[in-house]
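Researcher: We're teaching a course module on how sequence relates to structure. For the next exercise, students receive a sequence and then see the predicted structure as tokens, so they can try to spot secondary structure elements on their own. Here is the exercise chain.
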Amino acid sequence: MAFGGYSFETPSSYTASHISDAKRRIAVSYSASQNCSRQTPSSVTSSAAKRRIDIRPPRGFHHVSIPAEDCPPQQVALDLIFLIDGSDSINDDNFTLIKNWTLSAVNRFEPAKRFNETRLQVTVVQYSETFVTELDAVRVENSSEEIRDIVLNITQMKEGTKTYGALAFVRDITTKTLRHDAYKVLITMTDGRVNDVRNETTVDRAKNYFDLMVAVGVGEDIEWDALLDDFSKGVMPIITDNFVSLKNATGSIAEAVNPVCIGANATCLPSTDSTVSIELGICTRDPGNSNKITTLLSSYTASVTPTGRDVNAFSNSISDTTVIFTGLNPNTVFTIDLDFLPPVPRSFNFKAPSNINCTTKDRIDLEVKCENVTESSLCISYSTVGSTNRINDVRVFSVEISPPDADENLITKTSTDDELVMFTGLNPNTAYTVTVSGVADDTEIVVTSGSTTCTTRVTPTCEEKAIGLTFLIDGSDSIEESKYRVFINWTLTVIDAFKPQEREKDLRIDVVQFSSTQRRELNRTVTDSANEIRREAEAIYDEQLRSGTKPYSALQYVNEMEAGRTDDGSEYRILVTITDGNSTEPRDMSIVNTARAIFPRMLLFQGLDVEDVKQEVLSDLTHNSEVMRVKNLTVLPNVAQSILDQIHEDCVIIAVACEPSNSTDTSVTVSYSYTTYPSTRDIAYYLQNLIVTISPTGTSDNRFVKNFDELTSSFTGLSPNTNYAITVTGTKVTKRYFALVPASTNCRTKAHIQLDVKCESKNDNTLSVSYSTMPAGLATDSTLIQSYQITISQNGDKVNSVTRTIAEQRIATFSELNANTVYTITVTIVPTPGAEVIVIPGTVNCSTTERVNLFVQCDATTDSAITVVYSTNPPAVGTDSYIQVSI
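Model: And here is the predicted structure for the students to work with:
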């Protein structure tokens, strides 16, 4: 049962009227006790004191704890005053039980755990017709054993029961002995009715003086109202059936002084971009159950709003103190509502939060795209997802390629760099996954990585191959008739671009029209020109299928068609798809992957003025998203060029090499050459010029356009000891169909090491110097430095030299030197074999100190005096003011 902040047990035998009367008395007597502190409540009013309702609590051990929001500190000075009934209604055995009970009650306050000013002080007063102080304000340091003999030797008075007189006596007598800053607790123990007249002034003075008044009644003859109204403050009377049961009341008294207090708090733990979690902290201050929270609270529930995609509510045991909510939105405040299940029937104070707000971290998603692909390199770009560019919120980016075939497999970029990364030195016709991850300046921002897969191109061949060219043409009802005719004519133009009349090997043509169904329109080997099949192609004009769009079914049709051919590697297969990018069927990647295995090259050309485009369809029908929009017929030669570059027998191969002898710490020089096939044709037939580029860029020119007689290039303004990728390609002559094999290589600038030397210590024949490198990080780089060479000289003549390894302390000491002499110390390095290093030696001048020799000889002596003569060598310093002579 709970009322006015109090909680206590109520037996089933209590009637509703009993409960109502009890509530009324408690409300009047304890209305001011609304916090768990040492504040003294207002005294009981006269009208309340005169209210006499003879109602007794159930037998057993019951109390009401002080309601509170916060528990008081346990370690305060505590004065206990026991007012024990020694009247003749108590027999000898029961009085002995009272004395033992007093000692047990003292021990329940654990006096050994109290120190200095918080020591326990005990007073025992016996009352009957008269009153006597049996134990007067005695400090108990360890246990009641210290007062045991005194208490057990108390002689029972065995007279009447003047309880109000005893209350006045103990109020007056203890004012002289109790500590003013102590928490004063009066414990009155009686077994019978009060024989003297109630004195309201006595009651008021006692309640104003004592912080807590505990009334303990034993037996059938107790006066409940008197115990409740006049001898209790801050706690309900404790009633037992007999003196043997007194031992059960000691814990109740201890809890009344130091009530069971439980506090719960919830703390937000570090979140992620999709999770919030809390940790529940529960503490108790319970003298009897300090480690038994589960006996007081059983469980709690936690729910989150707004809800996420996963579980949004949990019911946990009170011992499970962590709750994690997942599947939440980033950068959002979430409210976690807490509800603790009602405690088991026991009196205690409880304070807990009803909710707590936790915020998910912000999130930045990265996406990666293939920008340029060659046989040996990949260029990718990265950006943040969403309409707002948040690149500047990311401090550093890590771009990694897998498998790790590149010259440099992990490249680090900052937000101030461009969002382009080039990987070189790759294998042709290989799928590479590039992953970009990032770290934000703000720790409350999570950066999720992005990745893409790019496939390097097939190495161009200089040998003619048979070609299997398959056209997959969209004939659905979303394609207007005029556009459909453009598609057919475009197919013929592409065929002519292959110059079948000049080919030695076959040019096989397949044309498949698709809509909801598929139809093979052509299957021919062309030997002269597209005119051979023009009539058949024009017949398709009026046979457009005009239904839905099922590109994946069409791709499966082509896969099955190609599966029936013998693949001995002699034919280069190309799939060219012409569509508007719509689809009326679900995506099927198994069909896509089969087609990619059959066709080394898959190109897609998107129709004119298309609105409802499904980008995944365009991507699935290609390698490396090779999509070209067909705007007009003038682009068709360029389309054919894209195909022919991979399979035509004419080719230009470029080679490039670093020139270390002409490179420095801030520049690299490369030389390049080219070879044409067939060799009878000059390079100018194919290319207009050569283009040389470097990555990462320097501070000077990063791209050169060269004539064919300029076969070297130098890039300046670079960083020392850094890898640079140099690529050489060319600008093609219009309408020349050939394979261009560009070249790339990595060149490293020379390391720049400048040495710094400092004089450290000296005397007349020794000098010590320290040395370091700039940049400091290169001091122990074994790839560049094999050892250090330290040389000392005087007037240009070498005096000595020492060699130090990079692992040794960078200090050198030279001894056996001349005094007062200037020496020059020079430090340089011995480079590691093969290392390209530019070294600037360090030099410093250091002087040894002056050396002065003193000579002393006896000049004259007497029986009481000695005369000596002293001089210096060299003599000139004998009068220098910096020399002090003492004898």
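Model: If you want an answer key for the exercise: The radius of gyration is 50 Å. Confidence is low (pLDDT under 50) at residues 1-73, 287-291.
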